[in-house]
Amino acid sequence: MVTVAYHPHFEKTIRKISDARVREHVKQQIIKVIENPSTGKPMRYCRKQTREVYIPPFRLSYWYDKRQDTIVFLALYHKDEQ
Question: Which UniProt keywords are given for this protein, alphabetically ordered (predicted)?
Answer without folding.
Answer: Toxin-antitoxin system
